[in-house]
Amino acid sequence: EVQLVESGGGSVQGGGSLRLSCTIRGIFFDDPDMAWYRQAPGHGCELVSRISPDGKIYYANSVKGRFTISQDNAKSTVYLQMDSLKPEDTAVYYCAADTAELGPLASCPIEFGYWGQGTQVTVSA
User: Fold this and answer.
1) What pLDDT, in 10s, does the model give residues 81-104?
2) Which of 61, 36, 43 is nearest to 118 (CA)?
3) Tens digits of per-residue pLDDT, 26-35?
4) Which residues contact 39 (CB under 8 A, 6 or more apart)?
């Protein structure tokens, strides 16, 4: 059984930085895409960033230029470096695997792919 375990959330002032980590416990049969989603109160589940097995990277326009996704295969860990944080980045952030086929989501996590437990990020003005 594969589990995704997130860490690194917390509270920070606007303009600050946080780094989220997602450690993969277990072994995937095939290398999956890895992604970060977020859900804020009253909002749908937003795909923040995704890294594909071939290295292709996607960023939501709302975070482009501020967030960086990376993957350390030796440590089985995916990171999301978040810089220049804004209050509107406040949300629960979820690590997910094997979700490339999904379209827009009303809420997350869902019963498709693999999801972590979520970590809260709070950015104050």
Assistant:
1) 999 999 999 999 999 999 988 888
2) 36
3) 988 888 999 9
4) 45, 46, 91, 92, 94, 107, 108
